[in-house]
Design brief:
By secondary structure, the chain is mainly beta. It is 0% helix and 49% strand.
Length: 104
């Protein structure tokens, strides 16, 4: 059964921005691209860097600040070395002005 967790307000993540949230002790990075919210594990699978400190690139990709590994925001798939292990993604639901994610 999936659990729904309120992370915060939609206003906390500006268009084209990334913000780190705590999901029950697990850091996740939430980004907003063209009005769509994406949530992924915040920790790079290659070098343990915080992806929320990285940058958003075209094609809904986030780049790790440490070694430049890249991940798809939509699927979590590693799309550029040195990262090759995907990050977990979470469905984001906007309920009024609240950001909600579903966890397994």
């Amino acid at each position: 059964m999936k659990t729904r967790v309120i992370l915060g307000s939609v206003d906390e993540v500006p268009e084209g921005g990334i913000k780190r949230f705590d999901l029950g002790g697990r850091p996740i990075a939430v980004s907003r691209v063209e009005g769509v919210f994406y949530a992924i594990d915040d920790t790079c699978t290659h070098a343990q860097a915080s992806l929320s400190e990285g940058k958003l690139l075209p094609d809904r990709v986030i780049q790790c600040p440490r070694h430049g590994g890249r991940f798809s925001l939509a699927t979590g798939k590693a799309v550029r070395l040195p990262a090759f292990t995907p990050v977990h993604t979470y469905p984001v639901i906007v309920e009024g002005d609240k950001l909600v994610v579903e966890t397994p």
